[in-house]
Amino acid sequence: MSADEAPAVVDARGLRCPLPVVRLAAAARDAAPGTLLQVWSTDPAAALDVPAWARMRGHRLVDVDARTGDDDAADEWRVTVRVGP
Question: What's the whole-model pTM score?
């Protein structure tokens, strides 16, 4: 991902499994191949579920970023995928 290539954001904060993946899948259906999508989630399962979904659906995992709060525990995950063909 280049510095000037901003992903389209799928905001799934506050939603529990499987909804972050469901929202991401809906966005991927409407996206052109090569599009970057980034799901924002407060559900720790998204850090595992989104990469597994991407692999099964032929998309490419670009990044998994755990955002930490004041207590150094991950409070939010931002998972970026590139839509496949």
Answer: 0.89
- CATH fold of 8-82 reads Translation Initiation Factor IF3 (3.30.110)
Catalytic residue among 17, 31, 45, 47: 17
Residues 17 and 49: their CA atoms lie apart, in Å, by 8
Asked if residue 37 lies in contact with residue 83, where contact means CB atoms within 8 angstroms, the answer is: yes
How do residues 12-36 score in pLDDT, each as one tens digit?
A: 999 999 999 999 999 999 999 999 9
Does residue 2 have an active-site annotation?
no
CB-based contact 18:49 (threshold 8 Å): yes
